[in-house]
Amino acid sequence: MRQATNISHLQIPMLLPGIEINTGPTNYHPIRQLQLLRFDGKSWIRFGEVIGG
Known about the structure:
Radius of gyration: 14 Å
Structural class: mainly beta
Oligomer: single chain
Distance between the termini: 24 Å
């Protein structure tokens, strides 16, 4: 459990570029970033920068 609660700046291939996984002893929410998407009628298009929450 100690290792799972001390992850810092981990980027994994299945997430969008720039999204990092961070946890801490008092924070169990690993993903706190996102990027907005817009549907153009055919597919989803990313826009803007990665937003931290």
